[in-house]
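User: Just a sanity check before I run the rest of the batch. Below are the structure tokens for the first item. I only need the designed sequence back.
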């Protein structure tokens, strides 16, 4: 997948994570479904050890109340394509 498509998808997935703030009362219960799903999606978007670590971080961030404001998909994209050395990037 193109890195910019991953960025757009990541921003959309981060926005989905913010939904729990929009719907009072019901929103936090949606995290029961969204937390494991977002962790799984993260491991599929980013392969290898960094993807697995990011998947766990995303799961924990979505599962704990109040941490949904952290844009983990966008941060992982920045880590992978901006801050990480070019030779370390694995494109699939």
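Assistant: Here's the designed sequence for the first item:
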């Amino acid at each position: 997948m193109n890195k910019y498509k991953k960025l757009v998808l990541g921003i959309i997935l981060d926005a989905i994570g913010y939904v729990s703030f929009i719907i009072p009362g019901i929103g936090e219960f949606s995290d029961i479904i969204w937390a494991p799903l977002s962790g799984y999606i993260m491991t599929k978007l980013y392969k290898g050890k960094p993807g697995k670590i990011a998947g766990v971080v995303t799961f924990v961030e979505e599962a704990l109340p109040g941490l949904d404001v952290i844009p983990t998909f966008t941060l992982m994209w920045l880590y992978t394509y901006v801050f990480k050395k070019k030779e370390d990037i694995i494109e699939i």
